[in-house]
Amino acid sequence: MKKFLNIDLHISVIADIINLFKQIDENIIIEDWSLSGHTWVLNKQQKNLDIINPKTWIGINMNMINSFQQKYDTILKTFDGFICGHPNSFILLYEKYNKPIYVINTCRYDLPFCWNNNYFMIEKLHKCFVRVQDKKLLTFISNNKADNEYFKLGNPTITTQIIPSLCLYTNMNWNPKNTKNFFLLYSGLLPNNMNNMIINRSQLGRYKWDILMLFKGIIHFPYEVSTMSIFEQISSEIPIFFPSKKFLKYLWENNLIHEQMNYWKHYKHGIIPKYLNSTLDYDFWIQNADYYDLDGYYYFDSYDDLFTLLSNFKDDLYEVRKEFIRKRKIKVINDYKSLIKF
C-alpha cells in the first residue's frame, strides 16, 4: 500500500487523478487536503490548515513554507509521495521529504508568483524542479499543450509529458435520444440578439452534471486555453462548439469576450520575465489550444455561422467523436500506467 498526499486549491484536478490512479493500482491511496471553496460539488469537506490556507496561500514565501513544514512535519513524513496539482508551487512544501512527487500542470505553473510579481520565489521554484528531477523523484505531467509550452519556456531542462485529463468522476454520458431542443452557452457571451435555442449557463443556477446531458450541445467562447469543464464535457461525448482560431483571436483582440491566459498582464501588470515574452501574443495560446486538436467537434467563424450551424444541426460527427474519445481514454490510462511504477 502506497499513500500520497495532495494539498490543492482546485477540486477537479485531484478528483481526476484519484479516479485514474484507482483504475491503475488499487493499492495507491491519495489523501486529499482540499483548500478549495468548491468542495461541496464533490460532497467533500474543505480542509482547515494553519499557515497556508485559502486566505494566505497567495502570499506563500520561504518563511511560510518552513513554518508549515514545522507545524505538519510529523504528518508529512508519513507519506510515500506527493501529488502536486493546483498550484504547482506547492512542490516547495514537499521537496524536503525526498519522496516521489507527481506534478500535474493544469494552469500557469508559476502561480501565485505571476500574480504578485514575486521573481525571487519563481527562481526558488525553478531551482526546486531541477533538484527534484536530479534526484529522480520528479514526474511532471501537463494536461494541455499550452501550459506545457509555458512551463518549458521557464524550465527548459525539465522532462515533461502531456496527458489530457479525462474527468470521469462526473459520470456524465450524453445520449442524443434524451436531449431537449436547446443548446447551452457554457462560457463567454453572445450579442443581445441571442438565439432562442440557446440557454446561458447562468440560468441554471447551482446544477448537477446530469443536467448538462439534456442539451443538444454545449457552446464555448473560451476565456482560457484549457479548463477542466471542457475536459469533463469531452469525455461525456456531447457535441461541443468552439469559435475557429481566427474568430477566437478576433474576439479576444477586440475585447468581445473575456480572456485571462497571461496572468502577468492581467493582475499586477508586472514586468514579464523575458523568457515569457512570446506569451504576450494571442497566437502563442491559440496555436497551443487543445480544443483545436479534437476529432468530432464543431467550429464556427462568426456569430451568424454559429446560429446557422445550430438551427440546422445534425450531429454528423457523432461516431467520429465517440471513436476519438474511446481511443483517448485508452491512451490516457496507458500513459499513466507507464508512469506509475512502484
Describe the fold and architecture.
This protein has 342 residues and is an alpha/beta fold. The protein has 2 domains: 2-165 and 332-339, Rossmann fold (3-Layer(aba) Sandwich), CATH 3.40.50; 169-327, no CATH class. It has helices spanning 11-24, 62-76, 91-94, 113-116, 119-134, 145-154, 209-212, 228-236, 245-253, 263-266, 282-287, 303-311, 318-339, and strands spanning 2-8, 28-34, 81-84, 101-105, 138-142, 161-162, 183-187, 198-200, 217-220, 240-243, 298-300. The strands form 2 sheets. A 6-stranded parallel sheet has the order 2-1-3-4-5-6, with helices on both faces. The mean pLDDT is 93.
What's the overall geometry? Answer: globular
Q: Any idea of the CATH class of the largest domain?
A: Alpha Beta
Distance separating the two termini: 10 Å
Taking strands numbered 1, 2, ... along the chain, how are they ordered across the largest sheet? 2-1-3-4-5-6
How many beta-strand runs? 11
Mean pLDDT: 93
Secondary structure category: alpha/beta
Whole-number radius of gyration? 21 Å
Largest sheet: 6 strands, parallel
- Beta-strand portion reads 5-15%
- As for the CATH topology of the largest domain, it is Rossmann fold
Helix fraction by DSSP (H/I, runs of at least 4): 25-40%
> SSE order in H/E notation?
EHEHEHEHHEHEEEHEHEHHHEHH
Low-confidence stretches: none
Keywords, separated by commas or semicolons:
single chain; 342 residues; alpha/beta; Rossmann fold; 2 domains; six-stranded parallel β-sheet; five-stranded parallel β-sheet; 13 helices; 37% helix; 14% strand; globular
